Amino acid sequence: MILCRGELLARERQGEVLERLPRWIDETLDRTPLTPDVTIAACDRLSRRAEAGGFDAELAGLDLDPALKEEQVAAALHLLRRESLEAMVELQLGRDPFAPVTVRPPYYDRPIVKRRRPLGVLLHIAAGNLDALPAFTVVEGLLAGNINLLKLPSADHGLSVALLRKLVEEEPALRDYVYVFDTPSDDVAALRRLAGLCDGVVVWGGEAAVSAVRALAPPGIKLIEWGHRLGFAYVTQRGREEGQLSALAGHIMQTKQLLCSSCQTIFLDTEEPEELRELARQFLPLLEAAARRWPVRDMGALAQGTLRRYTARLEEAAGFPTPGDTVLEGKGCSLTLKWDRELELSLQFGSPVLKCLPRAELLPTLRRSRGVLQTAGLLCAPEERGALTETLLRAGLVRVTGPGELSRGTCLDAHDGEYPLLRYTRITEADE
Amino acid sequence: MGARGTLFFRGALYDHPGTEKLFLAAMRENCAFQYRNCPEYRAILDRACFSPDQLRGREDLYRLPPIPTLFFKRHRLRSMRGGLFHTTSSGTSGRQSRVDFDLGALLCDLAMSLRACAAHGLISPRPTRYVILGYQPHRGNHMGVMKSAFLSTFLAPAVRRTYALTFREGEYRLDMEGLVAELRRCAGQRCPVRLIGFPSYLHFLMQELEHRGLRLPMPPGSKVLLGGGWKQFYRQQVDKPQLYAEVLDRLSIPEEAVHEVFSVVEHPIIYWDCPRHHFHVPVFSRVVIRDPETLEPLPYGRPGLVDLMTPLLKSAPLLSILTDDLGVLHPGESCGCGCGAPWLEVLGRVGMSEIKTCAAGAEEYQRGERG
Known about the structure:
The structure holds two protein chains of two kinds. Chain A contains 15 helices and 17 strands. Chain A is of the alpha/beta class. Chain A has two domains: 2-227 and 415-431, 3-Layer(aba) Sandwich (Aldehyde Dehydrogenase, Chain A, domain 1); 230-401, Aldehyde Dehydrogenase, Chain A, domain 2, CATH 3.40.309. A seven-stranded mixed sheet of chain A has the order 2-1-7-6-5-8-9, with helices on both faces. A seven-stranded mixed sheet of chain A has the order 12-13-14-11-10-15-16, with helices on both faces. In chain A, strands 3-4-17 form a three-stranded antiparallel sheet. The longest helix of chain A has 21 residues, at 273-293. Chain A is globular and about 70 Å long. By secondary structure, chain B is of the alpha/beta class. Chain B is built from twelve helices and 15 strands. A seven-stranded mixed sheet of chain B has the order 6-5-4-7-8-9-10. In chain B, strands 1, 11, 12, 13, 14 and 15 form a six-stranded mixed sheet that branches. The longest helix of chain B has 22 residues, at 16-37. The chains are: A alpha/beta, B alpha/beta.
């Protein structure tokens, strides 16, 4: 489905839409820019409508984990409420973000008018690992005043189009600022045409997506990449207590280790392999309990997890790739103990890697992974937290949380250490 | 001749009950060979407390530890030095597997192909023009798909071979003009034509003919042979009934003359579609669907991971491979075409479809696999 100026069209009409899109964009750009309050009011109304059951049909089609559904939907709707969006815009862009400011530079004889403006046209290439993400990235683009072209992930179940369609119904002024395409990623010609109309391309996650975008975006276009990060947990001897470990297990099974912020590697503050084995023995039953409570439900994902763990087991039996890795099999989960110290991707779906990492080596070790650092969960005594947090942030992390909150989301979050609205706007300067 | 040779050279193509013992004997032979010659495989079997002589009944086939294709993509296992011939996968997922054929396997493969081609009326003395909707052979390209397409042009004497993807200036390019020109030449001649290759390309070609308003009736006896990587079969980029209708409309080739085959590099047995377009399992292999969580064998009709078994190859322990595909096995009778062998339906690849998660993408960056 294509969403074009408030209308739903069949995918077959993509060619026609692409043909007319440049002119529509030009016309829209030539009008007074969209201000955040229009988007905020529309999102707030949409959120209230959804709370009253307006999206139940779409949500039912999502196959969300029943154990998490209510909480996830509520969190998503809170993000769309007026107070959330106003706080977000104010934090990221300041009060009255598009107002002109006159500056008088020292040693220069004339005043200059500075003004923040939208970047113009954004192409969003959204990942499918978070259900409402495609719609949220467009909302961010709208808050910054941009025209948004969204390429849906193939795994989208119709929620994003439904949300955005309702949004432009709430506020017809947004109609010309939202276009949604379900172009498959291998339709390079169409994606190239879309990219050719943009001032910026926002890419979320997906390896395939990022390399495709790099190849097709014309030079000079701003590439804004979100994602490609590995989360981890750091456990101190005093943090090895059941409550914290349980919270970590819950986080691992709830996110299935699929998010950038999901914990992949669990580091223990020790040099002693035996202590790591002890942690594994303590953690496995907690992870199994979490796997029972939040099982992998999608068959493809379940099979992938099983296949990866089975392959790892055979590799270990056959002496590949690193002899000495120890795999502890649990029901619906597993732990792999490795003896190097690098942050690494786990087998996912409930199969973290455990490693020793003494505190003194924390910063130099993490520095080697600086390109993928984002979130760390700390399991430690309260009086250790301050110093460890500081070390982690100095190493390059942008978020340090408790063991259960690695993947929490609030309206005031930065993406990978940056405010997206800043990146979706530009500063213009003109003589008075 | 060992059990493998007998299995591949004799017997009916779909007689599972009649070949049960022979299949087991060939698997046992092959398993013992792998056990002796491939230390890694031996270690895997030892760990599972399985020895080749335990392969006595159907249940034992299920107990034989299957090796995931993922494993072969990461590690090269060998039980023989070198091979006469090798093929690789197209590397859809970024990593390729390579499979070597020993002389015996090559002969068995040939026997299997010829027998199946004969059964499907593809062996003919009539000179034929081939239109290959795939890659032109080239020294650097070892894709199994390309080799089988090329080999199939020997089933009837070739007057001419035209390729959709021609190799020019160091890369493959789609030569649509060349294809259309060749089809124009073919139309109205007496020599039958065979179009061989990827369904998606055939679909493009049919669309192109429609776009140009061309109807080019092919001579009587012309055929279409569709095949390609396994992924072609579940992505459903091309709606098959629509494709058959297009082929009939544009080229006047009837649906009965359109055959479809598929194969996997690690399991190079050819599966042909029946008149109802189902893929029945030939006697050269056995298929078991495994539970996505426990890997226990599942009964007919239940979806799970596809495990493919064949004693064809000796060069590596490929006798039971666990693919990363989800599928369902149906009883033969449920098809209705008269073939009693079970048929396999592939549902799709494991994982979260296109969502390569952002965490997974990050690691590739870290390992420097990405630019």
